[in-house]
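Notebook, bench 3.
Goal today: get a predicted structure for Enoyl-CoA hydratase/isomerase from Microvirga guangxiensis so we can plan the truncation constructs. The sequence was checked against the plasmid map this morning, with no discrepancies at the termini. Length recorded as 114 residues. Pasting the sequence as submitted so the record is complete.
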Amino acid sequence: MLPLIVGHANALDLLLSARKVTSDEAMRMGLVNRVYPADTLLENTMAYVRDLVDYVSPRAMAVIKRQLYEVPFQTLAEAVTYANHEMALSIRSEDFREGVAHFVERRPPRFSGK
């Protein structure tokens, strides 16, 4: 997975040298996508997690993660077929209906993960 995240050259460098990298370098190579000062790390991490818990359907999150992890091993045709299948299932899910309802009713979502 590392070469897919940071590129082949960076992966080789990190794995062969086992050197420590700075937060700025980790950000530049795509190893991390956010950097916070140590004294606000927990606060910012918890705010991000809270946002995911409050506003993202657990079902949708699982589908997205599964697709991202499987796509490197699929052809384009397989990935499109799988994505279309998941979209059809998603549209019929409880979480999809709740997502529409919370938007229309202007209230926080209450996702079930189903």
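The chain has a mean pLDDT of 94. Residues 37-114 form a domain with the Lyase 2-enoyl-coa Hydratase; Chain  A, domain 2 fold (CATH 1.10.12.10).
Flagging this for group meeting.
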